[in-house]
Write a structure and sequence with these properties.
The structure is a homotetramer.
Chain A lengths: L1 E4 L5 H13 L3 E6 L4 E6 L6 H10 L3 E5 L19 E2 L5 E2 L5 E5 L6 H14 L3 E3 L17 H14 L2 E5 L6 H7 L2 E4 L7 H7 L6 E4 L6 H12 L6 E5 L17 H8 L4 E3 L1 H5 L2 H14 L3 E5 L17 H19 L2 H9 L1
Parallel strand pairs in A: 7-8, 7-14, 8-9, 9-10, 10-11, 11-12, 12-13, 13-14
Antiparallel strand pairs in A: 1-3, 1-4, 2-3, 5-6
Helix pairs in contact in A: 3-4, 3-11, 6-7, 10-11
Protein name (chains A, B, C, D): 2-keto-3-deoxy-D-arabino-heptulosonate-7-phosphate synthase I beta
GO molecular function (chains A, B, C, D): 3-deoxy-7-phosphoheptulonate synthase activity; aldehyde-lyase activity
Keywords (chains A, B, C, D): Transferase
């Protein structure tokens, strides 16, 4: 961290800045240039820097404070040098060599719908079944999900197909019931900064998938993961699902570059959700292919046997034939890129 | 709502669309032009339209669906023709003729800090004391607030000064304790779409201030208020606190036009928070003046007797002298604009 | 287009709206519902609708005006049912079956740099050489390009390697000199709505590549292409280069979904520029792969033999070894996806 | 500027960084901490730092480069310690103690319209007449303005009323004709980074008003002004006209905090355009009041005697009665705030 003093600051000003830095347990390294004096801050725990930064910003002699080191601890490669692999059992993993596909309807609607969809996505090669039983909806007047009834239908579909199950948890009250049925707990974009919820799931021994908030920076997203990990639960998957921009033709703007960016900073697996990222089924297939090519660890995609009857998100759901085509395309891309892995590593480090 | 059919759609396509609309309990009004066929949708409860829209969007013959009527019910002037005034007792109101000022530190830190600040803001003319006891922080390693200890200090300051108290509630678990001490419950930007929390406070008989989410549209913000009101609690204040944009010099971009915009749609009072809206104390004063001039029902502003020692948000806190100046400026603006009220109404309706 | 009347509008209000619509040469189709009256507008040239829309919005009885049909003419599949292929001669095409790669340095700097780079990118399989001779720079104090000297170096590199040349045109004054040397004229993001310039290049018989503006919607981008095409030049390539968002870790946010979206609306080829889209060389390779997988018609990428000596954009330039790896990966992806073309078409139309 | 080296960098890496810095004419100040080494850069002309920054970013040992000093020269208070006042003669000034109002129709349409509007705005207290003769329109099929004919009508209105005239210049070709009639040349948002145009107007002896680009940062906006001033023309007015965000209810999002922010950095006057900033006439009046209260040096507002017949921007034009009310409100606000000036200064510097 560096404090830049205002032009015309005196030696006394500089001294006050140094004293504050030292009082907070850091050491100060002033450097007086012809025009500007800067004071470098070194030492102490990174988590204390946030507070020091705010205090420095208030001092009348300080022009601005520039943070240099990243605020990450547990999510960072500095903490753990091996990629995190979430092992769900029966050979299903997220973060390993394979592209793991999670597929299913937006909402759980009925036994027939869940079983039919589960068979379709299983046959096509998906490993994990998605489906919402508790639904966050912008309007209180929209369909809010089947609740535990929906969770039971997910479990029934798992029973029959062997697929693992991911489903959304919206509040602390439902932690037990969701944990009873889910293999992975999903935290939605709207709850990415619901810190009470994050802390509670941090106490569980259960994989969690944390979606990026609608307007969350990379930093905020990773710090949300720190909230979970800081409580002890290190089984975190990140999910890029598009961010809000001025764009008016798609539901969100899929920020695919966030995936390699996060993978450079963090050992956590990152997957892509092109269904919410685009909101339009015609765009889901090309953007899912792009996510595979960009290096995502997995894809989450909405599939519905009859989208025109879906109770939510029909417009962004793939029909079975389109999903099968997508799976074949994803496999082809993964195969074609596999042979370059060693060359990629070699060049990156040269 | 209107469904626009694709070019080249047949009569059979049109018939399918009409059947779906009628099956959902609406009536269909097709209009076949030279190039395009559109089908108008009339009737039934507005809250069913969301689902119908999604179903129509999936049909292969439908190019797009355009929603015409607004999705608001309880927040709208159509529901209630008189402005909502939140009466906190002792003559303190939000939504009436006066500009109500809420002021105080970001975080409650100590007895001395709270009492000193409360006296300062009371003397300057504020009616409500703000102060966070439970703090939502981006990093789990930042100061998280004093908890109930902080609430007690707020109550102590109320006892001495007669100021009303507003403080943030972050989760359902703390509803009782926060209600015990607060006159107004604040829901922060990060929790604007925490629907479980919104539903719970909807069951209370306690005023609530709902901050606009970081990237929330006007529609999403008002629908969040609908979540609260739909449970029975109609004492809702809205608070504009800036939205996230590409801007890099301020913490957020204060969207002051949202205030008259919401006031056109809704009977709920709307206040402005220039401290979070700008994140820089030098900008707080001019933007607070602007909020008064734009017609806000109130202002929430951070004041700290010694910002350089603040445990959070020091850089955006006003010192006492600046706050007193601001209060005088706000009063001057309000007085100067008061005489135009009747002329404004006359012109608006001519 | 549809005009929605305010609640409580009278028959006389409705009549005035109808009269305006008819006076502008359209026909009006009123539809009176229980709560709202809407008036449909049919007929006349789409280009007159913009003006009618504005006039309707001003009427006191009109709540809002909803545009239904798209504003595109020449760029749309309705105008031309075959994909536009830009044929540059010698078998180099943009918009055909192949992924066309344009590569080279950000700025033309010297003969040695240009020839070395041209040989490298040619050997790796690029077909078109990029290089800026006139540079748009945010600061007037940054390097502004070599001007015609730079164009001559591009031509020299073309002479030796057989690569085609693309370079940026910044103003009308330099049209002749840029046309003399370039095979494709590039219009940069900052000039996307420089209408005087667009009209002038619309009069040329020379391919033009139009970059998406920093905050341009799909609609504005295609309408900028309409400006060019409306003057007679139909050889337009579109280029997605990232848009501006709240993201702070990348130069721009690459909006890859815009590529299939535009391809659905328009017959024009669309390419991707991951160098400007990300601003960081480590992200260029994965995002370029994603662009190929999303279906882009080409890729433009910055390559520099010695990025650390580049006069501009060094941080986003690939070194030769990384570029060769990327080319191999792109070829592998294209080959792997080729076999799905017919299946994709079949499913899309079923 | 500071270069932060990667963890694990060697002394040899550090040496290379120092050599580059010195080779570019700066001096290097390395500071080796326990975890990180940072190298401070001091000296040489600020305009050379952009290039050095890019070169450093490419070096393999460099983690990131942080710029500390601002890139402004001529626009900054460091260059000129007195506020710039644009004197248009006859007592009309922009940047002085008064709030200068520029008003008139979006487009010049006819003699009758211009004379009628000019009389109205003159009577209400405006000092400058606005009106577009050359119109930048998103679609090539929209009304493009009357050209020189329109300029003549503006001059005729000036002749009769004594108002000064501001009108938009869109391209270099029309500089002479626009200069012949205009007192202030307006550069629109779309041309804010049309550097060829900026350089040409920099050579004139004529005041220029530079609108903020749709997605321009404060830095880019001021650097655009540097382009003009660097050529010799220092008579620059800045104009905030709203920026593009995710908001869907207003044409743009008015960023009023940019006004005091720019005034802190620069001696140039800054005015507000609430008509384009909101796009809706009902919001123009409150936002114009807010602009006065925030400290703008002037307001530009669209007024039309018959908005329903306007050829462009009718929906955002005030009718005469609303404009008169606004002028009275603006005067009241300015009067009420005037008495605080000295107190504001005293507190700011204490």
């Amino acid at each position: 961290m560096i404090a830049v003093l205002k032009r015309g600051s005196t030696k006394a000003d500089e001294q006050k800045v140094i004293e504050l830095i030292e009082a907070e347990g850091f050491s100060a390294h002033p450097d007086t240039g012809a025009e500007t004096t800067i004071v470098g801050v070194v030492g102490a725990a990174p988590d204390k820097k946030v507070n020091l930064k705010e205090k420095l910003q208030v001092m009348s002699a300080v022009e601005k404070v520039v943070v240099i080191s990243d605020p990450y601890k547990l999510t960072s490669w500095n903490f753990k040098q091996e990629k995190t692999i979430i092992d769900l059992g029966d050979g299903v993993k997220v973060g390993g060599a394979e592209l793991t596909v999670m597929a299913g309807p937006c909402s759980v609607e009925s036994e027939e719908q869940m079983l039919e969809t589960a068979r379709i996505v299983k046959d096509a090669g998906a490993k994990i079944l998605r489906g919402g039983a508790f639904k966050p909806r912008t309007s209180p007047y929209s369909f809010q999900g089947l609740g535990e009834e929906g969770l039971k239908l997910l479990a029934m579909a798992r029973e029959e197909t062997g697929l693992k199950v991911i489903t959304e948890l919206m509040d602390i009250e439902h932690i037990d019931v969701v944990c009873k049925y889910a293999d992975i707990i999903q935290i939605g974009a709207r709850n990415m900064q619901n810190y009470a919820l994050l802390k509670e799931i941090g106490k569980l021994n259960k994989p969690v998938m944390l979606k990026r908030g609608m307007a969350a920076t990379i930093k905020e997203w990773l710090l949300a993961a720190e909230y979970v990990m800081n409580e002890g639960n290190h089984q975190v998957i990140l999910c890029e699902r598009g961010v809000r921009t001025f764009g008016e033709e798609t539901r969100n703007t899929m920020d695919l570059s966030s995936i390699p960016l996060v993978q450079k900073i963090s050992h956590l697996p990152v997957i892509a959700d092109p269904s919410h990222g685009t909101g339009r089924w015609e765009l889901v297939t090309p953007v899912a292919r792009a996510a595979a090519a960009v290096g995502a660890d997995g894809i989450m995609v909405e599939v519905h046997p009859h989208p025109e009857n879906a109770l939510s998100d029909g417009p962004q759901s793939l029909k079975p034939a389109n999903f099968r085509l997508l799976m074949d395309e994803l496999n082809a891309i993964m195969t074609s890129l596999n042979s370059f892995k060693s060359r990629e590593k070699k060049i990156a480090y040269e």
